[in-house]
Predict the structure.
Amino acid sequence: MSDNVEDLDERRTSLRLDMEAERIVLTWHDKKGILNTDEGICIDLARRGALIDYKEGFELGELLNITFNPDNDKAHTVKGQVCRTTQCNPNSFHIALQLITTDK
């Protein structure tokens, strides 16, 4: 297999936005039903998914709320479902999320 990145097929059909390590707030319910809130970092964002960095991993299928611009009036929250967790080092996990649309 070729090591040249240009030889790899691009599977994404939408543009990715590099978030330049944007700080986000994550909220989720643990297995006991307790609401947890903590900060993470958004690595990139696309129309249908996001890649975040967090200090712990999440289970496949877990639901997370991600709030962008949490400290100002432009705060925006989206919901995502974990589709992959990769440990980068003992205190860093890359979590891929499929964004879920919610009807209002």
